[in-house]
Design brief:
6-stranded mixed beta sheet, 4-stranded parallel beta sheet
């Protein structure tokens, strides 16, 4: 949090309650021979049904931060196709909050907005583009202060890229609590690690959390440990990562992954978001075929989003 501001909007806690999120989100079994042949049950934790605009883990991560913002401008960060930027912009429109999105890539400033950023702008988010070198250093106090000045947002409440901070991690702990005792493995696709950190903390004994990173790099384990330390004072829960299923990196969707997602939609009538959820489901199919789950296991896949129209 940086600076201070006098709120001129209603208390966001009251407004958030008025949005009526669907919690706990539905947990539904799908019958899929690729799992059934291995003696494994597959459940889908439909966080994509929590709210029509603040979808999935975005509700769980944003709601506690919007409480803490207390009506001030919310400034956050993301790339040109960021689900987090879109969710923050939608929250701003729904709650009457000013929002600023700091977008990676100064070269984008002179181009027509892509559909994702156009949605942000339509929802009232003010976009501020920065060069990639500055963006990489955005967590450094001096760089952050300079970005806030340049964006004319020095009194804003700052939410990090992907929304993963201690408040968000504590918000995601309820996801684990909703799944505790319902599955042997609870699996989620990971960008910045906040959802996994909270999920693992809420599961308790008997269920392990599995994260499937959608970015290359193998850096996420340290980030998850750091987030748990900041949110809870130390490690929580039994969790692991499988780095094999990023398909080349964030926002990369290969023809193989596209075909897999279309097939899953046809089999089960569930819309499959491509950047996160498709990679998670693909990973679980491969792991089942590798006999990574003992016979008799129940695996819950967290559906964290919907396809962007």
């Amino acid at each position: 949090m940086t600076g201070s501001d006098t709120p001129d909007t209603p208390d966001p806690r009251d407004a958030l309650a008025g949005l009526r999120p669907r919690l706990p989100s539905p947990l539904r079994e799908v019958v899929d021979g690729r799992f059934g042949r291995r003696g494994v049950r597959l459940l889908l934790k439909r966080d994509d049904l929590i709210h029509p605009e603040l979808v999935g883990n975005k509700w769980r991560k944003l709601a506690p931060n919007l409480d803490e913002a207390a009506g001030r401008t919310v400034l956050t960060f993301g790339g040109a196709y960021s689900n987090h930027l879109r969710a923050t912009a939608a929250a701003g429109r729904l709650l009457g909050l000013r929002t600023v999105g700091v977008v990676r890539g100064q070269e984008l400033a002179g181009r027509p907005l892509n559909p994702s950023l156009a949605r942000c702008a339509a929802d009232g988010m003010r976009l501020h583009f920065v060069d990639r070198s500055t963006y990489r250093r955005k967590a450094e106090p001096g760089t952050l202060a300079a970005v806030l000045r340049a964006a004319d947002a020095e009194g804003a409440y700052v939410v990090p890229e992907g929304g993963s901070n201690p408040a968000a991690v504590r918000g995601c702990r309820t996801l684990g609590e909703e799944l505790a005792g319902r599955a042997d493995v609870a699996a989620v696709a990971c960008g910045t690690g906040g959802t996994l950190a909270g999920l693992a903390a809420g599961l308790g004994g008997g269920t392990r959390a599995l994260g499937v990173p959608v970015l290359r790099g193998g850096f996420l384990a340290d980030d998850v440990r750091a987030l748990q330390r900041e949110a809870f004072g130390g490690p929580r829960g039994d969790w692991s990562l499988d780095d094999r299923f990023h398909f080349g990196g964030y926002a990369r969707v290969t023809p193989e992954l596209e075909a897999f997602a279309e097939d899953f939609e046809q089999r089960h009538g569930v819309p499959v978001e491509r950047l996160y959820v498709a990679k998670l489901l693909y990973a679980l199919v491969v792991l089942a075929e590798e006999n990574a789950f003992p016979r008799g296991s129940t695996v819950a896949a967290v559906v964290t989003g919907r396809p962007f129209p």
